[in-house]
Amino acid sequence: MSGPAHALRPGWILGPRADVAIFTGPLVLAGAIVALAWRNGTLHTDMPPWMFAALIVACDVAHVWATAFRVYLDPERFKRRPGLFIGVPVACFAVGAVLYGIGSDVFWRALAYLAVWHFVRQQWGWVAYTRARAGEGDVDRRLDQATLYAITLYPVLFWHAHLPRAFQWFVQGDFVHVPAALERGGAAVHWAIVAVFCARQVQRAVGGAGVNVAKLHVFGTTFVAWYGGIVALDSDIAFTAFNVLSHGIPYLAVVWSVERDRAQRHRTPFARLFRPRLAILFLAVLVLGGYAEEWLWDWLVWRDHPWLFAFGPE
């Protein structure tokens, strides 16, 4: 699929309007939260309680529970690979216990880097999906990968070179400090890759090969979320808003959309949850799961949100 007569189809994940809503929408919402905090003079203070509840509990933790509908709550899917679906969580728990036994700092550092990689790989997943939807082959695949990793990993490298920041992934000190010279070299590589990527898109457009608008949309929103939330602003509120919303909302939307389509073709145990009018119930179930998990964490580890988990054991 190349040449002037074969312009690429837009590779939208859910559709033009839906993709704008789930990828650009979170950035607009995050920007509004940052603007409100700046106006109130609280941008560089700790996250207020309502924001913790809305962003961490109701979005970040809740979106993870959406995976249950993709695997554990679907008997047909679960029966395909029960050993994998049971074995992986058990193995992860065992490894985590060993790491914590070595030292809590070792555990949190390993978990932080694993979480960062998860966030990065999700963005590549969106890019890969738009490529597939647009019918792109191996052409430009390596450049797309290099660009995605550049616009996500460079902000993380910047973070490492400018410790301590006003925010952390899990706990203070979970990232290791790196020399500033390494960050400056990373910046040069980062901008060089971005420049090559942009030049390639211009070349494709001028040459008639076509441009995958949906893919560029994912790249653009990823850049804004990661660079804006980590590099441009040294604020816990800004980092959390951009990081959590841009990660959680697209995943929630895609899971709901995929399961809705599946429910229309097959009888699934929770098919009713994926009717448009019951979308709020789907979200409520996930928020309840997120709240239960955070309640457990607060009771066993943190104990820093008594206002939200007041009924927990003393």
Index terms:
314 residues, mainly alpha, globular, disordered N terminus
Structure, explained:
The protein has helices spanning 16-40, 49-65, 67-70, 75-80, 82-102, 104-134, 141-161, 180-207, 213-232, 236-265, 279-302. The chain contains 11 helices and no strands. Helix 5 (82-102) runs antiparallel to helix 6. Mean pLDDT is 90; it is low at 1-6. 27% of the residues are buried. It is 72% helix and 0% strand. With 314 residues, it is an all-alpha fold.
Topology:
Elements: H1 16-40, H2 49-65, H3 67-70, H4 75-80, H5 82-102, H6 104-134, H7 141-161, H8 180-207, H9 213-232, H10 236-265, H11 279-302
Structural category is mainly alpha
What share of residues are in beta strands?
under 5%
Low-confidence stretches: 1-6
Helix coverage percent of residues? Answer: over 70%
Number of helices: 11
Outline type: globular
The largest pleated sheet is described as: none
The chain-level mean pLDDT equals 90
SSE ordering? HHHHHHHHHHH
**Over the alpha carbons, how many angstroms does the gyration radius reach?**
21 Å
Q: Report the count of strand segments.
A: 0
Distance between the termini: 64 Å
